[in-house]
Design brief:
- The chain contains six helices and eight strands, in the order ββββααββαβαβαα.
- By secondary structure, the protein is α/β, with parallel strands linked by helices.
- It has one domain: Aldolase class I (TIM Barrel, Alpha-Beta Barrel), CATH 3.20.20.
- Strands 2-1-8-7-6-5-4-3 form an eight-stranded mixed beta sheet.
- Helix 4 packs across helix 5.
- The termini are far apart.
């Protein structure tokens, strides 16, 4: 599945390890929030980068004390109609100030890319859209009325700034 990051297709060095699979001795891995909670000491003691995958019902606040140790947080979109991942991304970026990679995985559609990016995602794992289409989606609008996690100045702020 292609991984788009920084407006280019990149190699994915991360592997998601399901709860019932053994952990590999090395390499960059992501695990479920449940597995992270139950094996936290073991995972954080590894000499490799660690990531967590959040499902729609997971609370990102549970990661608050560990955000500096996490290099990647994946947010799963099991259905394109499930928008809870946008809220999870906003919480991680705006309230918890997470600065690592925030990746959308699952049913990631071209039409959602711009809104995912505005919510704080900086990487997208998708088999449903090609790179040119994703770049086009990210550039579809140049100004916004609502503030978001991407930090873009709103129309109101631009109108009333002295720049």
């Amino acid at each position: 599945m292609p991984l788009i990051k920084n407006r280019q297709e990149v190699d994915d060095i991360w592997a998601f390890v399901p709860d019932d699979a053994p952990l590999s001795p090395g390499g960059c891995i992501t695990v479920s929030l449940g597995r992270f909670r139950s094996e936290q000491e073991l995972l954080l003691a590894r000499n490799t980068e660690i990531g967590v995958r959040l499902e729609p019902a997971d609370d990102p606040h549970e990661l608050e004390d560990h955000l500096e140790r996490l290099s990647l947080i994946e947010i799963s979109f099991p259905k394109y109609t499930d928008g809870r991942g946008y809220s999870q991304a906003q919480v991680l970026r705006r309230r918890l100030a997470y600065e690592g990679e925030l990746r959308a995985v699952g049913h990631v559609l071209r039409d959602q890319i711009l809104y995912m990016n505005r919510s704080g995602f900086d990487a997208f794992e998708t088999e449903r859209a090609e790179l040119p289409s994703i770049i086009e989606a990210l550039e579809e609008f140049s100004v916004f009325y609502q503030p978001a996690a991407d930090g873009a100045k709103t129309v109101f702020a631009r109108r009333h700034s002295k720049d």
